[in-house]
UniProtKB/TrEMBL annotation:
Belongs to the HrcA family. Gene3D superfamilies: 3.30.450.40, Heat-inducible transcription repressor hrca homolog, domain 3, Winged helix-like DNA-binding domain superfamily/Winged helix DNA-binding domain. Pfam families: HrcA. InterPro entries: GAF-like_dom_sf, HrcA, HrcA_C, WH-like_DNA-bd_sf, WH_DNA-bd_sf, WHTH_transcript_rep_HrcA_IDD. Residues 105-324 form the Heat-inducible transcription repressor HrcA C-terminal domain. One of its GO terms (biological process) is negative regulation of DNA-templated transcription. This is Heat-inducible transcription repressor HrcA. Negative regulator of class I heat shock genes (grpE-dnaK-dnaJ and groELS operons). Prevents heat-shock induction of these operons. The keyword Transcription applies.
Length: 341
């Protein structure tokens, strides 16, 4: 059942008031603070309908009402529609705020601090995932009679230098020719692409260089796969104590424990959809420990391919408009910086 414009307006006012005050909202305060064009009695009747429909609820100890997850979901969906049409940012962030950080690790760490500072919630930056990175260069260099160094450089700045045992009769000229071939064959490919390209037809090509190369190749790329694919940068974890919803120490402790589980966090914020923003509200979250929270996530990209994620996590009483504005701008900055690297 679609809500009337009046009900939508009252629901939005309830949510905005609750986000700001953290106190249950009554009809009289709505009538005083918002130009709804109706009497407190009419507002009270509409609130009763909204409660019956599951968009708001009554805390046990109060006469006022607070939004439910269903109410927040409708609010966020309407907010996203409005933002698409208006294309305005509520918060303005200087466009060069991230540019002074040349190293990827420094950039990601500082980005998490910027997100936390501008939203006042906990921020999570998921580093580029190795499997989604694209090879930029492969170089093989002989170290001695038995060992060679393999240098892998990806488009996200990841550099891996594994060392491998080689036959004594493999010369540096062999390694250079193999390097050239591998660059022609694999540069621009992701690790996922490489797995499919390492087919039987490569065996014949590589056999021209040295009989042991084809056997060595899977081992070489396996070292890249073994690089941790869950590198997270967190900031503002203790901001959760600023919100009365987490005055209950058991809730706060559960949140802090969750923030220590890097792999779990990665799974929690992982996105499968291709929409610009993903908003997961309260009970929509997969983990019980996150059911008191909302998580807003977007991606940052390189060469139009999403390589990492930016997330903000806070109470369901989150200032969604502000968070989405900040994430959108920071994502755009990250895209520009990575493109120039």
């Amino acid at each position: 059942m679609a809500l009337s414009d009046r009900k939508l307006k009252i629901l939005e006012a309830i949510i905005r008031e609750y986000i700001e005050s953290a106190e249950p909202v009554g009809s009289r305060s709505l009538s005083r603070r918002y130009e709804l064009g109706v009497s407190p009695a009419t507002i009270r009747n509409e609130m009763s309908d909204l409660e019956e429909l599951g968009y708001i609820q009554q805390p046990h100890t109060s006469a006022g009402r607070i939004p439910s997850d269903k109410g927040y979901r409708l609010y966020v969906d309407k907010l996203m529609e409005i933002r698409k049409k208006a294309n305005k940012n509520r918060v303005k962030i200087k466009s060069d705020i991230l540019k002074k950080y040349g190293e990827l690790e420094q950039l990601l760490e500082y980005t998490s601090r910027v997100l936390s500072e501008f939203t006042q919630y906990t921020s999570i930056v998921l580093a580029p995932q190795v499997k989604k990175s694209r090879l930029k260069q492969i170089q093989l260099a002989r170290l001695n009679d038995e060992m060679m160094l393999a240098i892998f450089i990806t488009n996200t700045g990841l550099i891996q230098n594994p060392i491998f045992k080689i036959p004594a009769d493999m010369k540096q000229e062999d390694l250079e020719r193999i390097s050239n071939f591998l660059n022609e064959e694999f540069v621009g490919s992701t690790l996922e692409d490489i797995e499919s390209k390492m087919a039987e037809n490569l065996k014949k090509e590589l056999a021209k260089f040295h009989h042991t190369v084809y056997a060595l190749l899977p081992e070489m790329f396996k070292t890249l796969e073994q690089v941790s694919d869950v590198t997270l940068y967190l900031s503002g974890t203790t901001n959760i104590f600023n919100f009365p919803e987490f005055n209950d120490l058991s809730k706060a402790r559960a949140f802090l424990n969750l923030m220590e589980e890097r792999k779990t966090i990665s799974e929690l914020i992982s996105r499968q959809d291709t929409s610009k923003f993903n908003v997961s509200i309260g009970s929509e979250n997969k983990l019980q420990e996150a059911r008191e929270c909302s998580i807003v996530t977007t991606t940052y990209s390189l060469d139009q391919h999403a390589v990492g994620q930016l997330s903000v996590i806070g109470p369901t009483r989150m200032d969604y408009d502000r968070v989405i504005s900040v994430l959108g701008q920071v994502s755009k900055m990250m895209n520009e910086i990575l493109k120039s690297k």
